[in-house]
Amino acid sequence: MKKIILEDGTILTGEGFGSDREVFGEIVFQTGMTGYQEVMSDPSYCGQIITFTYPLIGNYGVNRDDFETIFPSLFGVVVKEHCEFPSNFRNEESIDSFLKSRDIPGISGVDTRYLTKVIRKNGTMKAMIVNGDRDPEEVLKKMNSSDLPIDQVPRVSTVKPYVIPHRGERIVVIDYGIKSGLLRAFTERNCHITVVPYNTSAEEIMRQKPDGVFLSNGPGDPAHIPEATATVEKLIGKVPIFGVCMGHHIIARACGATTSKLHFGHRGVNQPVFDVKTERTYMTSQNHGYSVDDNSIMSTELKVTEYSLNDRTVEALEHTKHPVFSVQYHPESTPGPEDTGHLFEKFLNNIRQEKGVRKYV
User: Fold this and answer.
1) Based on the structure, what is the number of domains in the chain?
2) Is 287 part of any known ligand binding site?
3) Are 305 and 327 within 8 A, CB to CB?
4) According to the annotation, is 44 in a ligand binding site?
5) Region CPSase: what ranges (predicted)?
6) pLDDT digits over 139-190, tens only?
7) Is the peptide bond before 331 cis (omega within 30 degrees of 0)?
8) Which residue among 58, 179, 181, 307 is the one 20 to 30 A from 68 at the CA level?
């Protein structure tokens, strides 16, 4: 038996699976009906305990092809029911086996509907998955005296640069915790990719002679990596830039806007976004706990091009003078709808137009 205990005093009991160790992290919920393997291996969940709202997780197993990173960095998993005997032609192991091999604890048999309502009401908060015999008062005391991690990006970013060679446009990717799906989106378009650590300087990036710079997704608070903001501030105006999720926040902050924490974040594959210019609605995949403050954009050279239909938060930005744009959601759609894959073409078109301008200057 295991318990999950929240800092507000909520206690839920269930059966343990995966690793037997106890963990402390931030409790969040994810609303996707499928794609649990991509979710669990998404570096943006570093430091978090994921509550899956869909009642049955693991029914099609785990396979080698759908990982978004080699070493998952989430802290724990909470489900209503986990499937012990998955059935799918691609299945290679169960979710229990997967979590055991990565030393990640899980708890099943939990009323995840109730737990989600608690998070929606009180916001994301500290939580621990512990053995059933632990004294709740002792656990709460430990949580109150402990801080959530703030070094998530350094934990998940690459330590050294690496290259994925091709013959197309030369893209430098700044890795704040990038998903494999984003890299695939560029390789499918024949791009030559150089992935660099989150704290790489603007000078070093420009030495690579990039045609464009891509800012990846990543976990945590963008305010905790000020060096990333300083780098992007220097890059704007020198090269076309495209940012996703954390990259979206970094572009906003580099232009003078501010970011703040959402009450419970957006984590799911069914988030509706409205495009102001085309008046079209897209369904998007999202995973973030922070957003760009709408009012702070007015004093910058950015404009809002898309917003969330759920809560009116900023979903996309575009620079008014330079070929720089960003989105809050994940256009690579792993997992999720494929409504916004055209954004990669937009980025590459910006690059080609900029190269054409420079050619005749």
Assistant:
1) 2
2) yes
3) no
4) yes
5) 1-170
6) 999 999 999 999 999 999 999 999 999 999 999 999 999 999 999 999 999 9
7) no
8) 307
